[in-house]
Amino acid sequence: MNFSFVDPWHLFLPRDGGHVVALSGSGGKTSLLQVFAAQLVSEDVKAIFTCTTRTEALPGFPVYDLADVEASDPEHLPAHFYVRDSITKDEKWLGVEADDVDRLSSKFSDRVIVVEVDGSACLPLKFYQPEEPVWPRLTSLAVVVMGTSAVGEAAGDVVHRFDRQEFPPLKELKAHDVWQWDHSYTLLTAPGGYLEQVPADIPVVLAMTSLAQQDDSIGMFEFVGKVMENDRMPLVVFCETTGENPSFRTSCRRDEDDEHPVGTEE
Predict the structure, then answer these.
(1) Does 109 reside within a domain?
(2) Is 172 inside any structural domain?
(3) CATH at 117
(4) Domain of 186?
(5) Helix (H) or strand (E) holding 140
(6) Is a pLDDT exceeding 70 seen at residue 266?
(7) In-domain check, residue 144
(8) Maximum Cα interatomic distance, the chain, rounded to a whole number of Å
(9) Which residue has the higher pLDDT, 93 or 139?
(10) Do 235 and 12 contact (CB within 8 A), yes or no?
(11) Whole-number Å distance between alpha carbons of 213 and 225
(12) CA–CA distance from 139 to each of 57, 117, 204 (Å)?
């Protein structure tokens, strides 16, 4: 088995209406959502963007309340817009429910929907609770996000809910212990980790963010090689969304003697 890069990096993104792309995990989901949105807009792909948790505006896009969208004729709405549930009296935005995403996908069948399905308190990693995330039934692609900036830092500083110790495979890890690539691999693949939270029938892409904050490139590529041995994760996206020159590359697993990489079209 060997690896190669996909060109263009965003080839895995669906362009046909009816697809629901769900972003889960930690360490840059909203920034990645903005990148996906910009790409779809540049190709004139009709799309709706939203979030199932506490949410905020996506720069450059009109915002609609869910009730107004559901009551509107699809032809009377712009090609690209953001949906929130509503806004509270203290001006906090509420995210939509997973069932709402499914209804939007059915009503706007000519559009791709891109949705964040959980939160992580702005930290690069998190320990999941059993009931999260809640996936829209029509999800056709899961993008699992992990922040590489966690590696080399104190575990208690980079993992959301670390103090609750809700992830048994790493129960011996202390808050002052340095987070390593092996810890990220366990968090991704062990029972109760990121991958297990994705329903088995949904294709998965791993997105590794904050590359500019991680100097251990050797360790990172060893981690990626190990990850891509898992049949569910043939694609890994390397993401740096900050600075003047954001960069993205997608690596794919190429099985020996296969003419085409796994996860790409002939």
Answers:
(1) yes
(2) yes
(3) 3.40.50
(4) 2-254
(5) strand 139-147
(6) no
(7) yes
(8) 61
(9) 139
(10) yes
(11) 20
(12) 22, 11, 11
